[in-house]
Design a protein that fits this description.
- Two copies of one chain form a homodimer.
- By secondary structure, chain A is of the alpha/beta class.
- In chain A, a hairpin with a 5-residue loop joins strand 10 and strand 11.
- The longest helix of chain A has 27 residues.
- The model of chain A has no long low-confidence stretch (mean pLDDT 89).
- Chains A and B meet through helix 8, helix 9, helix 10 and helix 11 of A and helix 8, helix 9, helix 10 and helix 11 of B.
Chain lengths: 336, 336
């Protein structure tokens, strides 16, 4: 797999991208990386590392999309030579099997929509992430692309998530649940109630009903669907909860020297937990419904997170998810 | 303060309620408790305890509203002699300064709405809770009463939350924030964007802008407002996150005997954290906007949680919040 990597996405770009690319090659996360950005800067930075130079190619792009650029206007107008748009174009033009950027999610989505577009008949692409759960792998979508949804969008998210779970995780009949405030079918807002009824009769979807936030974290369903507003609030609450709990723990431990010794002894456990809850370990968010494999890594990614995102994108690209999603939606004439 | 306490709300009723009432009296959480439910059962249970018998009075109510009863129909029809409705009526009729129940939140809300009603000009009552934060006290509303909201409802929630923070916590100009998926004013769904604009021009509200879930947990704002669907998802995600993190920790600790010793030494820290994150320590949820002081405790409450809820309801009743909320809304003619 050849992966196009935007070298100017993270907060500390291009350092994590360059080191992450080298790590990815060393660990055989993919065959080759097209590292996109200011050529001189990248070549100079790459000189610091020892690696198979045939497997990282620098592609020049003179501009950078910053976090402050308004997502769509930035990619629409002046940013044609930005590292982000060039990364997307390499994938679009078949020179790369997937595109990875740690830039602003809105900008990446806009660039992907404008340059690659949606899978035919997909109404809205959705951002999918992996929930950190007690067991197994749970995909959740949408976590931010569509803040106002209709029931039809959510049914398509269910399909995309289901196909993803099926081909990426090799799960036979993925259990799909609707994020809601109670298990009963009558629970929830208008959107949830209407979506519930549609999912009940949607063929080929293993709909297991409503799920609450706390149940979702147990990891007993494979796909959780929700509108992008609620999904984003939930995702950020999870991040915040983990950070807050560790901080509270740290502060309490400071006050008590016996607990301090205890904490030192249990340090590997904290490390494991931090890793498990850290989104960077999950490799990034997939723009499901885009007619390509485009992955967004977190802006705060370090080299390891970038390496994971590269590996993750290669695994998705070879999973067959995209081809099967295309096949399903292109042959479904009921959708527009 | 005299508190009416539904003795048949919790999952293990009436044991936690009876013991909780005795504890509340022993700790002077209030002057007197009217314990509502099956007289014979309660009197027999109370005989097990040593306490000032003048300060707990049993009020007979022969029926019980179960979790399975559909909220509104149960209180509307046959449940007039239920412990829940009788508890609410004692408060309505001025025999108690506040009402506390650990029953189904929907049923308590329905009973309060039907028997006490809303403060004049309040469009929708909201469920308010205290967020467990790193510092200070943050009130969040609505966490489940109104799953489909209009911007006007949210502006009223902001007012209710602000008055609550002002009178209960004695905070001079409570900082009010809107739960959203980003800080910028253009972020969010239609509801959030419209509410943002209304709050900007709402007199007497110290609106500090949008807040994300993870920021809310830092406790730097006093009031967080949101629609009841999103609020409920966030609340349950927090609960789930805490449970999951502790469970993951436990499982990892089991695998490593050094970490096990460490965990034993840091045990007081875990206890502190569990307590801090445990909603029962926060005393319950207030039905803000109801023309009375009605508190819902968690169905899984133990005696200590019930005691805390009683204490909490007494503190709210004496805070002046209700009187000031009435004064504000009754004189606001722009609302219907």
């Amino acid at each position: 797999m050849i992966i196009a990597l935007d070298a100017f996405g993270t907060d500390h770009a291009p350092l994590p991208e360059v080191e992450g690319a080298v790590l990815a090659i060393k660990e055989n996360a993919c065959e080759k990386i097209l590292l996109v950005g200011k050529e001189e800067v990248l070549k100079k930075e790459l000189e610091k590392y020892y690696y198979d130079t045939n497997r990282i190619e620098v592609i020049n792009a003179s501009q950078v999309v910053t976090m402050d650029d308004k997502a769509s206007s930035s990619v629409r107008k002046s940013m044609k030579d930005s590292s982000l748009v060039q990364t997307i174009l390499l994938h679009k033009n078949g020179l790369a099997d997937a595109a990875v950027s740690a830039g602003n999610t809105g900008a990446v989505m806009a660039a992907a929509l404008l340059n690659i577009g949606r899978i035919k008949n997909v109404m809205r692409p959705a951002i999918s992430i992996h929930l950190p759960t007690l067991k197994g792998n749970t995909v959740m979508l949408d976590v931010g692309a569509n803040v106002d949804c209709t029931p039809d969008y959510l049914v398509q998210f269910a399909r995309l998530g289901s196909l993803y779970s099926q081909f990426f995780y090799k799960i036979d009949q993925p259990k799909v649940a609707l994020l809601n405030i109670g298990e009963e079918s009558v629970k929830g807002n208008e959107l949830a109630k209407k979506t519930y009824q549609l999912l009940l009769v949607e063929p080929g979807i293993n709909f297991v009903g409503n799920i609450e936030g706390k149940e979702a974290m147990k990891g007993e369903v494979n796909v959780v669907i929700c509108d992008g507003f609620v999904g984003n609030v939930m995702l950020k609450t999870l991040e915040g909860a983990a950070i807050s709990i560790f901080r509270m723990m740290k502060e309490q431990i400071k006050k008590d020297w016996i607990a301090k010794i205890g904490a030192m002894l249990s340090f590997p456990v904290y490390q494991y937990l931090k890793k498990k809850l850290d989104h960077s370990e999950h490799g990034g968010a997939l723009l499901t419904g885009i007619n390509g494999t485009v992955l967004v890594a977190h802006g705060s990614s370090n080299a390891i997170a970038i390496k994971n995102a590269v590996r993750f994108s290669a695994r998705i690209a070879e999973s067959g998810f995209l081809e099967h999603a295309r096949e399903f939606f292109e042959s479904s004439t009921s959708q527009t």
